[in-house]
Specification:
Chains A, B, C: InterPro entries: Gly_transporter. The structure is a homotrimer. Chain A is an all-alpha fold. Helices cover about 75% and strands about 0% of the residues of chain A. Chain A has one domain. Chains in contact: A-B, A-C, B-C.
Chain lengths: ~210, ~210, ~210
């Protein structure tokens, strides 16, 4: 297995745990709903990326390892979900992990399929935020990518790191880890200090 | 016309009736909204399946019969929708019918395009639940596939019946009807007795 | 640049302004959310069209001018968004402009890629209403295409004008402007007089 595949499956697993725990906490779903939301969260970003790249059928459907990883993640989350009041922190951390890993692997796959520099950064970001956006729409929340403390920006940074490194001739695992680490750090700092990007001049009152 | 096409058009018609009646009942839409929601409900699952199979453009756009069937179903529902309090039962029954037919035809098409056993069962299920999920998102409900009494499970069973039968060498109309019948029976029993899949250990309080 | 490209980029710009201002007004988002919603509104319809045509990757990802136009529109809207109470009118006008331009360019592209008469009209309409539908789902509103005063009908008319003209052998810029003008006129009249398509017989009470 290549480094990219390992990181991709790790991201899939993290998002499956996140989506499934979100289903338990936010919508009190049964086991089918929990595993389904976990799988959609885990596989949605990669499917969006592959549709936009025209790389169909998506890797998640031609490669069984993604489906199994996502399903197992959802089932583990279902089994372990004990007290709802303890779920908030793991949900947020698994989301940040998946975001960081997918930003890097999404951008890497886009480059491998011949996308340009800008498109690769954008597709890495879409891979990272896509699954969580589908998750939020399905449980009727305004998606994190639109509303939350620094969500798309760390993904953009993580994707940009691997794209710039690849342009400079370095496609090793080191820069993938640097990109994912940078994304994770910014995201966790953003959550910890409740940082937000600038708001519009007219938007002074909170909704 | 092949058996698969007949069943597929029947499923399209049932889902168009269901989606259009849902538009009348849940969102009080005008005729354009009613027919639009009927068509999205009827065609959405097959479009999702074809995108995931990379079979583009989707059959619903290269074959006029699907578009016409969906539009006619929506118009009929608009014309017949009399009293709102009588719509709950037909909405549920048409949804169960569409679910059963699409589980079988979706899995059959996936196999015909070379998908593996597991993927075919999954794609049959996605075909069955996809249109209703789009419908629920558009009228702002938590999708049935996440929340409802036994919704994805009967579709999985129906799809699995035809996939297993095909693997054993039998691709006739009989097993398609057995699969659709099994799905329909489980779904109607689930609704009648309000059965649900197991809920997570922490999810003791209802939302 | 061809006429079609100019009209397409104008439509992209109008929808980017509309989506971004909607983000400022309806959901009080930060700059990332504002630009993201602007870009999704501007690019969503064309992406849906290209997926349904099987023309992948979508033009918006292989042609940088769309991405830049959408991003610039979103940033301009962010910078100019002064007082929320003044935004309602420009939001509606930019939406009507994008709707009219995309109905025409979407139908033209569908014909250029070999779609039939009916499919081209439908794909023009989907291009026109697709981005706004994604926008409404993301900020949790019932989509305009389902609920609003004459929204899909003007798009259908605008698309039909260019498709009929092309069938009669005339593919010049004149009929594109006539189609877009007809769509814009009907839409603005519909908004001004709060016209609606007929409602179902049972739907007498408002939600």
């Amino acid at each position: 297995m290549t480094t990219a595949l390992v990181l991709d499956l790790l991201g899939t697993f993290a998002f499956a745990l996140n989506g499934a725990l979100t289903a338990v906490r936010a919508a009190q779903l049964d086991i089918v709903g929990v595993v389904t939301l976990g799988m959609i969260t885990a596989l949605g970003g990669g499917i969006l990326r592959d549709v936009l790249l025209g790389a169909l059928p998506p890797a998640t459907f031609s490669d069984w390892r993604y489906l199994v990883t996502a399903a197992v993640g959802g089932l583990i989350a279902f089994a372990l979900s004990g007290r709802l009041d303890r779920l908030a922190r793991p949900i947020a951390v698994f989301d940040a992990l998946g975001l960081s890993l997918f930003a890097v692997t999404g951008a890497t796959k886009a480059m491998a399929l011949g996308a340009g520099v800008g498109q690769s950064v954008l597709l890495g970001t879409i891979t990272a935020v896509g699954g969580g956006t589908l998750r939020d729409v399905l449980v009727r929340r305004v998606p994190s990518v639109l509303s939350s403390e620094l969500y798309a920006i760390p993904a953009l940074v993580g994707a940009a790191v691997v794209v710039v490194a690849a342009r400079l001739g370095d496609v090793g695992a080191l820069w993938a880890l640097v990109g994912a680490g940078a994304c994770l750090t910014i995201r966790l700092l953003g959550m910890g200090f409740r940082l937000n990007a600038p708001r519009p001049p007219g938007g002074t009152t909170e909704p």
